[in-house]
């Protein structure tokens, strides 16, 4: 996968040189290219923003600067343009998997009050444009969001994780973990500061371990994300009994058949 990142702070992305993403870059699995947006500004101050039409506080990033940058980077190609913004679609595990299947992504990091909206309209005629939010809060710029997205997307690329099955049990993973949070995890020693690992995890009984993990995922989701738990589907009788015990209801049509 190729990922181009356009920002006025390209140095922000040094974390992409370490850990799994750094290894993916070193192996050629992930080709990250950083671009300084100001390189396409031609005035003495390398200006990339101006006052907003209609008044109001803050500054808006200029369309002609972004247009020049995206024209040069994309050329005649058709990457997916990803624009982090609080007003975008929520970034989810499903979206990470969707974007991981794309061969080429371009990330446009806005600052100030954002990028002139005509940029997204213009490039929406030439390529797929995805405006994405990583949460219901406002950041100083899109760089942090892009770091989050590249890590989530990059770990799904073939060969990046040591064990490809690791993604199957991720929170939110499509399939058995859809709309579920992953439960608690443990390693050695079996007792630490009087806290013991649950006996079932030491039993060697794969069926019981799987059931325990499912139960813990259900409990954690009800406690921490009841909005997700309300969307659970494919529940079996055991799931239902546990949700009843927790006094949490989802519709009867969500029972597994």
Automatic annotation (TrEMBL):
Q: Which Enzyme Commission number(s) are listed?
A: 2.1.1.228
- Which InterPro entries does this entry report, sorted A to Z? Alpha/beta_knot_MTases, tRNA_m1G_MeTrfase_C_sf, tRNA_m1G_MeTrfase_TrmD, tRNA_m1G_MTases_N, tRNA_MeTrfase_TRMD/TRM10
Domain tRNA methyltransferase TRMD/TRM10-type, by residue range, is 1-229
Q: Where, in this chain's numbering, is S-adenosyl-L-methionine bound?
A: 110, 134-139
Recorded family membership? Belongs to the RNA methyltransferase TrmD family.
Could you tell me the keywords of this UniProt record? Cytoplasm, Methyltransferase, S-adenosyl-L-methionine, Transferase, tRNA processing
> Which EC class is this protein assigned?
transferase
Quaternary state and interactors: Homodimer.
Fetch the Pfam families from UniProt. tRNA_m1G_MT
Family matches, as PANTHER family: TRNA (GUANINE-N(1)-)-METHYLTRANSFERASE
Swiss-Prot/TrEMBL GO biological process terms: tRNA N1-guanine methylation
Q: Which reaction does it catalyse?
A: guanosine(37) in tRNA + S-adenosyl-L-methionine = N(1)-methylguanosine(37) in tRNA + S-adenosyl-L-homocysteine + H(+)
Subcellular locations according to the entry: Cytoplasm
Q: Name one GO molecular function term.
A: tRNA (guanine(37)-N1)-methyltransferase activity
Q: NCBIfam families attached here?
A: PRK00026.1, trmD
SUPFAM superfamilies xref list: alpha/beta knot
| Function, in words | Specifically methylates guanosine-37 in various tRNAs.
Provide one Gene Ontology cellular component. Answer: cytosol
UniProt-recorded name of the protein: tRNA (guanine-N(1)-)-methyltransferase
């Amino acid at each position: 996968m190729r990922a181009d990142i356009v920002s006025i702070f390209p140095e922000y992305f040094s974390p992409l040189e370490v850990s799994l993403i750094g290894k993916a870059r070193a192996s050629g699995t992930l080709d990250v290219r950083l671009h300084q947006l100001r390189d396409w500004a031609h005035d003495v101050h390398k200006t990339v923003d101006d006052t907003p039409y209609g008044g109001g506080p803050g500054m808006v990033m200029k369309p002609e600067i972004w247009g020049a940058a995206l024209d040069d980077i994309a050329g005649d190609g058709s990457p997916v343009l990803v624009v982090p913004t609080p007003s975008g679609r929520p970034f989810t595990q499903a979206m990470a998997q969707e974007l991981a299947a794309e061969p080429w992504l371009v990330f446009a990091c806005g600052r100030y009050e954002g990028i002139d909206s005509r940029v997204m309209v213009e490039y929406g005629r030439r390529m797929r444009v995805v405006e994405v939010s990583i949460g219901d809060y406002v950041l100083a710029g899109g760089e942090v969001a892009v770091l989050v997205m590249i890590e989530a997307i990059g770990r799904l690329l073939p060969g990046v994780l040591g064990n490809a099955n690791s993604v199957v049990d991720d929170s939110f993973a499509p399939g058995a973990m859809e709309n579920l949070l992953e439960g608690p995890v443990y390693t050695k020693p079996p007792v630490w500061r009087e806290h013991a690992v649950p006996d079932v995890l030491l039993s060697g009984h794969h069926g019981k371990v799987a059931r325990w993990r499912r139960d813990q995922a259900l409990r954690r989701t009800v406690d921490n994300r009841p909005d997700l738990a309300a969307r659970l589907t494919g529940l079996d009788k055991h799931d239902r009994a546990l949700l009843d015990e927790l006094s949490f209801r989802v519709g009867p049509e969500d029972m597994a058949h």
